[in-house]
Automatic annotation (TrEMBL):
Coiled coil: none annotated. The chain crosses the membrane at residues 29-50, 71-96, 102-124, 136-165, 171-192. Keywords: Membrane, Transmembrane, Transmembrane helix. This is DUF624 domain-containing protein. InterPro entries: DUF624. It holds the Pfam family DUF624.
């Protein structure tokens, strides 16, 4: 098989995954579909990176969507709520008395670091481990604090991806969140392997 054909097949698979992601977001009426769909994308990407055979992309996506539906929704919306609260605290801290501002900014920075770690490893951990919600949270924190290099690589990769998307916004229609899922999953697999 020529390299051109392989590249075309690869782009088609990625585009198909993107379509499945969008369909299943709406299948869950957006609110209940967004996080299980993201988890399913990460699971499929992990499947690819581990070089496992994929007989039907649609079938394994649906399987991962159902498997992670509850956990992805609970953790996704919980940490989204916490992120919203931290952002709002950051915005309104400027209106607090000066003595309280220092304490509030310190608390916001601490929570922002925790949330950065959580969002960096949350979905890779959900699809990598079969653990309780509490155990998943502990694994995410352990992964983040044990590998500063992993966090830095993820941040750099995310910045590069967003710059490319900013320059070429049309790529979002084809690739969506998949480049982010690839980089996060690839880095996370290595970090999780070191944890084990």
């Amino acid at each position: 098989m020529s390299k051109t054909v392989k590249l075309t097949d690869w782009i088609f698979e990625i585009f198909s995954l993107q379509i499945l992601w969008i369909i299943h977001i709406f299948k869950g009426f957006i609110v209940l579909g967004i996080f299980p769909s993201i988890a399913a994308v990460f699971a499929v990407v992990r499947h690819w990176l581990l070089k496992r055979e994929v007989e039907s992309l649609s079938y394994i996506f649906k399987q991962y969507y159902k498997e992670n539906f509850k956990t992805a929704n609970i953790l996704g919306w919980f940490f989204s709520s916490i992120t919203f609260i931290v952002i709002m605290n950051f915005i309104y801290t400027a209106y607090y008395p000066e003595q309280i501002q220092i304490i509030m900014y310190a608390a916001v920075i601490f929570m922002a670091i925790i949330l950065l770690i959580v969002w960096a490893y949350l979905f890779p951990a959900i699809v990598h481990y079969k653990l309780s919600i509490y155990e998943l949270f502990l694994v995410v924190l352990k992964a983040g604090f044990s590998s500063l290099k992993g966090i830095i690589f993820q941040l750099v990769s995310a910045v590069i991806i967003f710059v490319i998307i900013f320059k070429l916004p049309g790529l979002v229609l084809i690739f969506g969140i998949i480049p982010v899922a690839f980089t996060q999953t690839a880095i996370s697999i290595k970090v999780f392997h070191e944890l084990n």
